Amino acid sequence: MVSADILTMIELHLVLKAPPNKTRTLIAALQALAKSARVDPGCMAVEVYKTVAMPRYICYDEIWESEATLRCMIASRHFSQLAVLMELSSEPPVCEFRFITQTYGLGFAEEVRGCDND
Predict the structure, then answer these.
(1) Rounded-to-integer distance, Cα 38 and Cα 74, Å
(2) Pairing of β 94-103 and β 5-17
(3) pLDDT tens digit at each of 118 positions of the chain
């Protein structure tokens, strides 16, 4: 059996629909917010991106190292600024906090496939 590295990461996943002709403005605002988040203690990664299939939808993801650091961020000015941007969405935003408790490496796929490590 493959051993798992147990992590307590949490992903904040946000999807906004930009109002007509405001996609670039909203992306710029999210990128500025992402830049400041990257230096916050406990922030492991931040991404801002659009999907090809739905060009007016903007995704914003932050990964936090623990629930404690996430809670600090939610209580901060950073999250207040994010909430202001959520209000600009032309439809109700999707905001999810995804708790990630286990991560497996390539060894998991090898185990499932029955591969030998010759």
Answers:
(1) 15
(2) antiparallel
(3) 433 444 578 999 999 999 999 999 999 999 999 999 999 999 999 999 998 898 899 999 999 999 999 999 999 999 999 999 999 999 999 999 999 888 888 989 999 998 765 5
Q: Note the pTM of the prediction, 2 decimals.
A: 0.83
* Structural domains of the chain ordered from first start: 9-104 (3.30.70.100)
Torsion sign across C-alpha atoms 53, 62, 15, 50: negative
Q: Whole-angstrom Cα distance, residue 79 to residue 74?
A: 5
47 alpha-carbon distance from chain centroid: 7
54 HSE (CA, 13 A, CB side): 9
Find tokens 């710029």 and name the residue: 28
